[in-house]
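User: Please predict the structure of the protein below. I'd like the answer in structure-token form so I can feed it into my own downstream comparison script.

Assistant: Understood. Taking the following sequence of 288 residues as input:
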Amino acid sequence: MDWARQGHLWPHSQWSRFHAVAPHRWHVQEAGQGPSILLLHGAGGANQSWRGVLPLLARDHHVIAPDLPGQGFTRPGARHRLGLAPMAEDLWHLCDAQGWAPEAIVGHSAGGAVALQMALTRGERPLRMVIGLNAALGKFDGIAGWLFPAMAQLLSITPFVPALFARMSGNESRVQDLLRSTGSDIDAEGARLYRMLAGDSGHVDGTLASMAQWRIEPLLDALPQIDLPVHLIIGDDDRTVPPRVSVAAARRLPHAAVHSLPGLGHLAHEEAPDLLADKIDSLLKQTV
């Protein structure tokens, strides 16, 4: 995506910054003062998904919301580093380079998996909590387990496919159908921003490449090693990541709690940003 051409259409553009930290050129929104929180969006989205939550959390916290590599306005500098483990490593490099020491990481969907991977590899950094919102912590069932990543890999390396897919996916009715399939009902501004993302071939290409490189099994095997408090928030109406996925993951985490949100779907933080900001804030105030 081209910031010079599209940046004025982006929410909270006054908080946008660009950081060249190897191997990527990162687009990050940063606001507020206080303890630092890192917000990670899900696959196919960008930091626009936190547009309602970010300013509310920024009242009492220093909030950092990057676009993940290859998505939104973050330009990937190394195509082979768009999978789960490299992405987490590169996010830590970004934080270290900017002097950010997040006390908590909040991740939505695939961002929840990235947050836990960062917790697993935090070293001596002062991270004290992970919050996952409808976290994508399960494997595809059956044939999809090997077919979907293979298809994503094929599509991402086939000439013209990302551009063609973007033209198809950017169609208003297709985007509306996709959003409804998540179990969430978001506002017109949210739908506009997803159409903007879905219609951009660079964003589509980055998302497909990330899907092709996604390997969740090593993280799932390592969940018992994560010795931090982990709070898994689930929308009871989530049709993208079934609530049972978070329940099963919580059983394998040493210090996990599950919190249900009745009536909300996969994009719960976009449906009810006030509710989610209050929930996140209350969890952050809990003592370790």
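That's the full token string. Residues 142-152, 154-162 have pLDDT under 50 and may be disordered.
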